[in-house]
Amino acid sequence: xxxxxxxxxxxxxxxxxxxxxxxxxxxxxxxxxxxxxxxxxxxxxxxxxxxxxxxxxxxxxxxxxxxxxxxxxxxxxxxxxxxxxxxxxxxxxxxxxxxxxxxxxxxxxxxxxxxxxxxxxxxxxxxxxxxxxxxxxxxxxxxxxxxxxxxxxxxxxxxxxxxxxxxxxxxxxxxxxxxxxxxxxxxxxxxxxxxxxxxxxxxxxxxxxxxxxxxxxxxxxxxxxxxxxxxxxxxxxxxxxxxxxxxxxxxxxxxxxxxxxxxxxxxxxxxxxxxxxxxxxxxxxx
Length: 286
Prior knowledge:
It comes from Halovibrio salipaludis. By secondary structure, the protein is of the alpha/beta class. It is built from 8 helices and 19 strands.
């Protein structure tokens, strides 16, 4: 029996597959803003993962301001010393929404890991702050994260590179730009190596909201679920690194806006059942 996947208790947690619309409807970012339940929330943007933080912050400042944020904070953490700065810690503390941009997820974990800034992000999440991330900022949310591996053929032993993430959600591996960069084989290799992990492949301009045992898909793109908990066989343990993996009976689902997934029971939730789950979650947390 697989270990149940679940998000840690706290405020809304959103993972976005990257390349979300910032110019027209901005459907996903508009939804992120609404999750704060405030008319004009303060958004803190962390651009640590990016090599072009000026450009990235400028884009998010424009779109979040246009969507109704009262203030968009530039949380410019570039070095580990910045992650210990009281100035940046206070900016995180004052944010209703903490938004983590894309780039290199290893920069995120290396610079923010075991820092006062990360402690403040976790404390904020536990007290109800919205935490959202796109691309690298989504991949780092899981306890174990994917940080590398070729898209063309990762179904080889040892091809997918993994490291410790931030642990905001357990039992899940998140991969981003999933359809656009052909990353199916990456999550299949992860599942063959350890079937307990539920693979969540986020397409571009697609997102999920984690609420306890329920994961809700939203946005125009696709969310792909790769469930290896029922695999009937694999040769992965017999192989040397680089050799081709066979794996059987992998279950996949494609979700779109309005659908969800029960992480405990590992089953798809349709719109009607998802509304029921949402009501039960609201009652349990009221």
